[in-house]
Design brief:
By secondary structure, this protein is of the alpha+beta class. Helix content is 23%, strand content 25%. The protein has a four-stranded antiparallel β-sheet with strand order 1-2-5-6, covered by helices on one side. The protein has a two-stranded antiparallel sheet with strand order 3-4. The protein is globular.
């Protein structure tokens, strides 16, 4: 199987019709907590129509939604907020208050389930749930990586368990050369059976 090069992807003429911009940022706060922010913006390149708003000129935002989750060093959520600058329906902001239910959850194994349990279905907003999923990987890239860099080290194992990123992709395979070099104690590692 060959992987297409960047040139291969644009051989057929095409015209941009919709752009979704997702921006994620991790901040260390002055109180030693962390803010992980995610922003989603949908823009159409053509004049469109909304049942509630009527005409939407090309370039205007269909969605402009921002989520901020505050966590401690252990990735425990201490606060969560969401903001909506542009939405297609007047009822969309009704979902904003539901994000407060994420307080007390921990980013890590079970994060996806915690989002669904607390904000699933009509209790929340599809786009907010989507951003919360992205926030998890951004928090991991921000906090444990920063902490390891401050120590001049790599992300440490926890209680003999491998760091969360091991075994999650080809590069971090438990049988691969990168794990063998950086985390030799986990080469060939298999998780114990769940009880």
């Amino acid at each position: 199987m060959t992987t297409p090069s960047n040139d291969d992807m644009s051989k057929i003429p095409r015209e941009l019709k919709h752009e979704r911009q997702v921006t994620l940022r991790g901040y260390l706060r002055s109180d030693d907590l962390w803010d992980i922010e995610a922003k989603l913006k949908d823009i159409r390149t053509y004049d469109s129509f909304s049942w509630e708003k009527g005409a939407i000129p090309a370039g205007d935002s269909i969605h402009d939604i921002r989520v901020c989750v505050t966590v401690d060093d252990t990735l425990l959520v201490t606060a969560a907020q969401a903001f909506m600058t542009a939405v297609p329906y007047h009822t969309c902001p009704n979902a904003l208050v539901s994000i407060e239910a994420m307080k007390g959850a921990t980013i890590g194994p079970g994060w996806r389930s915690a989002i669904e349990e607390r904000l699933g279905g009509d209790r929340g907003c599809t786009h907010i749930r989507e951003l919360l999923l992205h926030i998890a990987t951004t928090a991991y890239q921000t906090i444990p990586v920063w902490q390891a860099q401050q120590r001049g080290d790599v992300i440490q194992s926890n209680d003999g368990q491998p760091p969360q990123h091991l075994g999650r992709c080809t590069t971090w395979s438990f049988n691969g050369p990168v794990v063998a070099r950086i985390y030799p104690q986990f080469i060939g590692w298999k998780s114990p059976p769940r009880r």
